[in-house]
Amino acid sequence: MQPLSEFMQRLEDLTVKASQIDKELFETYNVKRGLRNQDGSGVLVGLTNIGDVVGYKKKDNVITPSEGRLFYRGINVEDLVHGYQKDNRHGFDESVYLLLTGKLPCKNDLDLFSTYLAGIRDLPNGFVNLILSFRGKNIMNMLARSVLVMYTQDDEAENYSHINLLKQSLNLIAKFPIIAAYVYFGFRHTYQHKSLIFRHPDPTLSTAENFLYMLKGEDYSKLEADILDLALVLHAEHGGGNNSTFATRVISSSGTDTYSAISAGLGSLKGFLHGGANLQVEEMMRDIKKNVKDWKNKNEVLGYLLKILKCEAGDGSGKIYGIGHAIYTLSDPRSILLKDKARDLAESKGKADEYQLYETIEELAPEAFAKFKGDNSKVISANVDFYSGFVYKCIDIPKELFTPIFAIARMAGWCAHRLEEVTFSSRRIIRPAYKNIFGRVDYVPLEERD
Questions:
Q1: What is the pLDDT of residues 276-301, one digit of tens each?
Q2: Is there a catalytic annotation at residue 189?
Q3: What is the model's pTM?
Q4: What are 57's strand-pairing partners?
Q5: Of these residues, 93, 226, 385, 417, which one is catalytic?
Q6: CATH for 68-271+405-424 (1.10.580.10, 1.10.10.10, 3.40.190.10, 3.30.470.10)
Q7: pLDDT tens, 87-143?
Q8: Which of 184, 249, 306, 317 is most enclosed, with most CB atoms within 10 A?
Q9: Which residue pairs from 153-157 have beta carbons closer than 8 angstroms and sit at least 24 positions apart in sequence?
Q10: Has 13 been annotated as catalytic?
């Protein structure tokens, strides 16, 4: 009998071969790979009232780059951020309310909403003990499992009335930051052999303050809390077409429960091409800082970026992580807003030189792409992932929580889109078509096969 190792190798070879598709066939059948048009723009597959991502203008099938803008229920995120920052308050709760209801709350409604969320944050002891027992080397998987466990503790999990779906959404939004903190404690205890430190959420603190309090106690600054709140606001929503939100809507269209749909969003966000991108940026920056001797020498930095693009440096992928976006061209508004605060944070932490290196790379990356491609027609800019990891590192947030923070924020967008999908959708399951190109073959009896 053939050794198991050889058999597995043969299975691998067969499955790799069976997965190959001639790229020319995509053009032959006019297949929209990745649900993208030939010019890179997204294929229109739905309508939404929630978020709008604007990065280019398209007229007569010609795309013209434009400054990036992001709208939550028609309100420019830049105006939203500047509005609550002017009042010297945190804006995540207000953003959640806006995304769910379609309107900005008055002060009384905002106070009631924040009080409601604060009142349902804490977790039952039995649930805490359960999630602390989870094992896994990526916290995102344990978070998805935690959400599915919430299904088992919800007596109304299969109640699909709108009020119940709304209550489930608010429960997830309120509890998820606490779940993320506890899951991290369990992860740290298991894999880093550090002691368990438990803190209960403080109802007088904002979502950002609570998360920092649970991680660090009272050892955080106002600036740290302010910039984490900003990061949560900027990551809360990004249109119906981003991968995790689309996954949530696809699953919701089948008529399944809230927890199943949200766990799908978490599974998508885990991917390094989506929520894990800022981790890739951090790894890239660690490599650049190690190999570029003079961070202020733009020629040296540019030369190393070209090496990265040529797969001669970095992780060998040929990618400058954090640069470029599927929709944004001239700028990513989230990156601009986060970068502005990141500068102040870097100076307060004695990391001004490192911040300057980020700015230098942001400045030189388009030039590096143009030289590598021999074409300067493609317009690219830094996306929000480029600075978010740096910000979290300055706040002393462990890298294992970078993507969970994204999930804490995007929970608001996922829930808003799920409510929209199940409330006003065509009530038709989302089912795009796939063209089978294998052809037809005759069945061969077992004794006659090779």
A1: 899 999 999 999 999 999 999 999 99
A2: no
A3: 0.93
A4: 64
A5: 385
A6: 1.10.580.10
A7: 999 999 999 999 999 999 999 999 999 999 999 999 988 899 898 888 888 999 999
A8: 249
A9: 153/124, 153/127, 154/259, 157/257, 157/258, 157/259
A10: no
